[in-house]
């Protein structure tokens, strides 16, 4: 007869402390809030797609197919079922990790998304690093001495960048750097497995097309908030009265508070950042989710469209979750106020 050892009370106390921590409770609340959001996005997307004229059966068979042939293929693909039934079938599989099969190719959507998500993720990540990495130091230099040369140049560049659409900028970058100067390739993607340098070289122009408008927006936003902090807040006056240097006041006091606003706009702009990949990936022929989504819309492959939109929604929700966690790291009052 075997007996099981009693649970270690120290392990129980550690587990209880972890589960009861403010950070874990904050994450739990945000995850619970994300579930109805993603569900609502999937319902809305499925409803809108059901209203679009045309179907995948007609696309597969071509314009010369007879009505009987189209109906037979609709029955085979399950397109003759009511919209509610088709959605519930899709949702049941999605909960188990099965996003269905493409109506056009018949291949599992999950496998197609997995390979393309790496391309889009790398493109978005590179654009994000470029935009934030340039915006923060430029905004700090501009706010250090407002209305001086650096500040005026940054404002002109920011207004110019915000006035140009990213797809127009993409075409200009191709014309200048790919056609005339032949420094970067106009189209194509080199995976990381073939070399980091070649990979970054192939993503330079599309990442710049996405990053430059974001850089201009972040720079203008952060510069304005820093100037307001430096000129109108009592804690800045107090820090200066203590003899703290201007750069230290700017970095340790003003920038810390302004970072809350920057985190907010970055989290909100992630949806726009992901959405811009649909056009940019098409221009540069990148095999990412954006290109897959556009192809699926053109072929009425609603299963693929549904999966792409849900993936975009999940990424946006995760970005806002990360933003909430960064709030808690910067200000413990947010973490403990979530009880």
Beta-strand content: under 5%
Provide the helix percentage: over 70%
The number of helical segments is 14
How does the overall form come out from the CA principal axes? globular
CATH topology of the domain at 116-336: MetI-like fold
What would the average pLDDT be, to the nearest integer? 81
Structural class: mainly alpha
* CATH architecture identity of the domain at 116-336: Orthogonal Bundle
The separation of the N and C termini measures: 46 Å
Unreliable segments (pLDDT under 50, ≥5 consecutive)?
none
Number of strands: 0
Query: Major beta sheet, specifics?
Result: none
**CATH hierarchy class name of the domain at 116-336:** Mainly Alpha
CA radius of gyration is 25 Å
The helix-strand sequence is HHHHHHHHHHHHHH
**What is the CATH homology-level superfamily of the domain at 116-336?**
MetI-like
What does this structure look like?
The structure is a single chain. This protein is an all-alpha fold and 339 residues long. The protein has a domain at 116-336: MetI-like fold (Orthogonal Bundle). It contains 14 helices and no strands. The chain has helices at 9-19, 22-51, 56-61, 67-77, 83-95, 109-144, 149-162, 166-180, 196-232, 234-241, 246-283, 289-298, 302-330, 332-336. Helix 6 (109-144) packs antiparallel against helix 11 (246-283), helix 8 packs across helix 11 (246-283) and helix 11 (246-283) packs antiparallel against helix 13. The longest helix is centred in the C-terminal third of the chain and has 38 residues, at 246-283. The chain starts with 8 loop residues before the first helix and ends with a helix.
């Amino acid at each position: 007869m075997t007996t099981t050892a009693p649970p270690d009370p120290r392990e129980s106390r550690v587990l209880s402390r972890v589960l009861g921590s403010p950070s874990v409770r904050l994450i739990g609340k945000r995850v619970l809030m994300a579930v109805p959001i993603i569900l609502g996005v999937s319902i809305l997307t499925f409803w809108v797609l059901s209203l679009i004229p045309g179907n995948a059966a007609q696309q597969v068979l071509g314009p010369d197919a007879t009505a009987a042939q189209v109906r037979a293929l609709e029955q085979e693909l399950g397109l003759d079922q009511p919209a509610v039934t088709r959605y519930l079938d899709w949702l049941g599989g999605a909960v188990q990790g099965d996003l269905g099969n493409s109506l056009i190719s018949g291949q599992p959507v999950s496998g197609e998304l997995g390979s393309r998500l790496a391309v889009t993720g790398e493109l978005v990540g590179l654009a994000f690093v470029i935009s934030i990495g340039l915006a923060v130091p430029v905004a700090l230099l501009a706010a250090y001495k407002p209305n001086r040369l650096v500040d005026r140049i940054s404002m002109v560049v920011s207004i110019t960048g915000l006035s140009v659409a990213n797809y127009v900028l993409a075409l200009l970058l191709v014309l200048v750097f790919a056609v005339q100067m032949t420094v970067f390739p106009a189209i194509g993607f080199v995976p990381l497995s073939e070399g980091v340098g070649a990979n970054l070289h192939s993503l330079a122009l599309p990442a710049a097309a996405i990053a430059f408008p974001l850089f201009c927006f972040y720079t203008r936003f952060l510069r304005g908030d820093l100037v307001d902090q430096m000129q109108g807040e009592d804690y800045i006056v107090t820090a200066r009265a203590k003899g703290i240097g201007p750069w230290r006041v700017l970095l340790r006091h003003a920038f810390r508070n302004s970072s809350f606003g920057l985190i907010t706009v970055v989290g909100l702009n992630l949806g726009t950042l992901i959405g811009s990949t649909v056009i940019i990936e098409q221009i540069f022929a990148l095999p990412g989710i954006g290109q897959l989504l556009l192809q699926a819309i053109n072929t009425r492959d609603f299963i693929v469209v549904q999966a792409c939109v849900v993936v975009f929604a999940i990424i946006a929700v995760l970005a806002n979750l990360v933003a909430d966690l960064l709030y808690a790291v910067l200000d413990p009052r947010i973490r403990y106020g979530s009880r």
